[in-house]
Amino acid sequence: AEEETQVVEWKPAQIRQVLPSGRFIACVNGEEDFYEEFGADEQGVEWRRTKDSAATAKAFAVAAKAAAEAAAAAAATNLGEQEASTEQEVKTKKKGGRPPGKKSNKRELELSDSDAVSRPEKRAKVTLSGTAPSIPVGIRNGGVGDALSVGKTVEVRGHDRHFEGSWFTAEVVESRNDMRKVKYEALFDGEGDGGRVEEWLRLELLRPLPPPTPASNAWRKQLKVGTAMELQHEGGWWQVEFVSAAHGAMAEVAENILIKARQWGDEHILVQASKLRPGWQWRAAKNDWSRGAVIE
């Protein structure tokens, strides 16, 4: 029998987040419930750059409008069918597959104002269970799953320019596999309506709220040059290093402490001791905390 020829079609998409690892997450073909992750090693196989980013952006806008209109029409036509389809879609997503009716063709992904990329269709892969790999029950029901579940208050590691070395508090408002949508307490939209920022993030950028700072200052007795601490500043907590207590005082009783931070150029800065807390490190595998390591 003759081998069937597969026709490849490229679809527009937009990059929604660049991860610290250099990989990126994109919204495909204007479908806001369809996000995928890509890396540089997949260029030319999973995605490609396009020469006309303006045309790609226009195609994405058209696709997004069509997707929105199709969703609205489906809802207006038969709410009952939509609910049944939604239930099936959720089941399909839990198995790692695509919802019924979603195509798996190649897609263009816009990288910047001057660049764009795209990705191709892939054949579904399944494990011995007949489905795509799933999260082990022990992890889903405890550890990271519980600590970073919907409704939890967490801290988000700064991943944008000028926010390196920071932790900002946020609430988890939505969950999707290893992604979480968070709403910040003290970060606001500087270009839109000024409301609190919401964004989708990978689990590696989140941690639970650290333990409360000890009521006594005994923890500061263990400080030595280079010990990691965190400074409360502009609504967030910033990673800093201990330099010395001011005026030769003992660290546990000093009102002011000299610190430095790599993200601020290692300049020595005098701050109020009351605005400092231990430099917390969360070990996700054990779901516990350590503090005060010396920064090399």
Automatic annotation (TrEMBL):
<feature type="compositionally biased region" description="Basic residues">
    <location>
        <begin position="92"/>
        <end position="105"/>
    </location>
</feature>
<feature type="region of interest" description="Disordered">
    <location>
        <begin position="78"/>
        <end position="141"/>
    </location>
</feature>
<dbReference type="Pfam" id="PF05641">
    <property type="entry name" value="Agenet"/>
</dbReference>
<protein>
    <recommendedName>
        <fullName>Agenet-like domain-containing protein</fullName>
    </recommendedName>
</protein>
<feature type="compositionally biased region" description="Basic and acidic residues">
    <location>
        <begin position="106"/>
        <end position="124"/>
    </location>
</feature>
<feature type="domain" description="Agenet-like">
    <location>
        <begin position="151"/>
        <end position="211"/>
    </location>
</feature>
<dbReference type="InterPro" id="IPR008395">
    <property type="entry name" value="Agenet-like_dom"/>
</dbReference>
